[in-house]
Design a protein that fits this description.
- The protein is α/β, with parallel strands linked by helices.
- The chain is built from 14 helices and 10 strands.
- The protein has helices at 3-12, 86-98, 115-132, 149-158, 171-177, 183-199, 220-232, 262-277, 282-285, 299-306, 320-323, 331-340, 348-353, 379-388; strands spanning 41-46, 52-59, 104-108, 138-142, 161-163, 206-213, 238-243, 313-314, 365-367, 370-371.
- A hairpin with a 2-residue loop joins strand 9 and strand 10 (370-371).
- Helix 3 runs parallel beside helix 4 and helix 7 packs parallel to helix 8.
- The longest helix has 18 residues, at 115-132.
- The chain is globular.
- The protein starts with a helix and ends in a 24-residue tail after the last helix.
- The protein binds iron/sulfur cluster.
- Iron/sulfur cluster (SF4) binds next to loops.
Length: 412
């Protein structure tokens, strides 16, 4: 099999892993146009300093001893298989890098021969890149659950980011759909990497995992509770949510005709953002009575509607952490307000000048002590008015100059 054929199989097999973000769309080059998009191969991720970097995203092999019900590469599927050698991956990475096509590598793998054997192949690839080629670019690798501590630590020490995918939010679901895995087994390599970096006071190793949404019955509260504990206790940097895409026809999974729950995935990312950057606890966002995120409103707006007694909030005097809880105000908006109000009390015109949209904000604030709406409005009335607001088409591309385009992640 040629390198091109392997590359085609092993980039395609890696496309369902979202712990390294990828566009997932396919577009061919139009005559007279510029650029095209493939759903596998080169993806984009964000480095610690916020830069967007392009990565070669591949599997070392799509052979796998495991039989995870949701996975295209499981042993019981009849698919085209291929395997790279560490030398081939290292050479491909360097060649793509020298041609300026990528800035780094995302390398995952099926389990071939044994967990230790697979981890050894990944480690060898990293050693070749770092030591033989002197490659200093970004490398994200999958740690193999069940591999020995020595191999895990050596691998983590050479990588910028490591991940190990929990995939299913409960032990019962893992037992049902991924019988070769347990939560402990999947988390163990991350714990080993974390302990190593803490004990040896090395640079912190970025760690992430992925959860599949909608393949099993766990609710959003279960998922956010798990994510919170992964951030707090396991010190993970990111939890990625992947709407379940039916690939295999298996009785324990939703039918192949089920559409991926993309809006649910989006709401979970927004809630996750509130937990990591806006000071919310998961139990404020959801509880046993309301275990699912409202698909009509973003999670901060839903929280505010359930807690109208905490509003209105005065824009000119509220502390930063209180301002961050106001729907329609993101981190950038709060920073602008804090900076501007050092000089004088702000008015509505000032907010508009700062490009802060009043569409949602106006229900929840006072400006110089004045209400912006009639505050005898109740929960139902505000909901109705908010639902009547024009919605952007989900497919719409924001223009460079459209400051009203809502809820990019940082502007909840
Ligand atoms: S171990 Fe990974 S590659 Fe193998 S079947 Fe499970 S999810 Fe797929």
């Amino acid at each position: 099999m040629t390198i091109e054929q392997k590359l085609s199989i092993l980039t395609d097999s890696a496309k369902y892993d979202v712990s390294c973000s990828s566009s997932g769309s396919v577009r061919t080059l139009d005559f007279g146009g510029v650029g095209s998009v493939g759903n596998g191969g080169i993806c984009h991720a964000y480095s610690a300093d916020g830069r967007c970097i392009s990565l070669l995203k591949i599997l070392l092999t799509n052979y796998c001893l495991y039989d995870c019900a949701y996975c295209v590469n499981r042993i019981s599927n009849d698919i085209r298989r291929a395997a790279f050698t560490p030398e081939e991956v290292a050479e491909l990475t360097i060649n793509f890098y020298r041609r300026n096509m990528i800035e780094g590598l995302f390398l995952s793998s099926g389990i071939i021969t044994s967990e230790d054997h697979t981890m050894r192949l990944i480690l060898k690839t990293l050693q070749l890149l770092r030591h033989s080629y002197g490659f200093n670019g970004y490398v994200h690798v999958k740690l193999i659950p069940g591999a020995s501590e020595e191999l895990i630590i050596q691998t983590a020490a050479l990588a910028d980011r490591v991940s190990s995918n929990i995939e299913l939010p409960s032990s019962a679901s893992l037992a049902l759909l991924a019988p070769d895995k347990t939560r402990e087994k999947v988390l163990q390599p991350l714990t080993m990497a974390k302990n190593y970096s803490l004990e040896h006071q090395k640079r912190p190793i970025g760690m992430s995992t992925q959860l599949i949404i909608g393949a099993t019955p766990e609710n959003d509260l279960d998922i956010l509770r798990l994510s919170s504990s992964l951030y707090d206790k396991a010190m993970l940097k990111r939890v990625y949510y992947s709407a379940y895409i039916p690939i295999n026809n298996t009785k324990n999974l939703p039918a192949l005709t089920t559409p991926p729950p993309l809006l649910r995935e989006h709401r979970l990312y927004q809630a996750d953002w509130l937990i990591r950057f806006y000071g919310f606890g998961f139990e404020e966002i959801l509880n046993e009575e309301t275990p699912y995120l409202d698909e009509r409103f973003d999670p901060k707006l839903s929280w505010a509607l359930r807690n109208l007694h905490l509003f209105p909030i005065e824009i000119n005097t509220a502390e930063r952490e209180i301002l961050l809880r106001i729907p329609g105000l993101g981190v950038r908006g709060v920073n602008k307000i804090l900076k501007a109000r050092r000089f004088r009390a702000l008015n509505v015109y000032d907010l508009e000048t700062m490009k802060i949209s009043l569409k949602r904000l106006r229900y929840f604030v006072t400006v110089r002590g004045k209400l912006l709406v009639d505050h005898s409005l109740d929960y139902q009335q505000i909901q109705t008015e908010l639902l009547l607001l024009p919605k952007p088409s989900p497919a719409a591309q924001p223009t460079l100059f459209d400051h009203f385009y809502p809820t990019v992640m940082g502007e909840l």
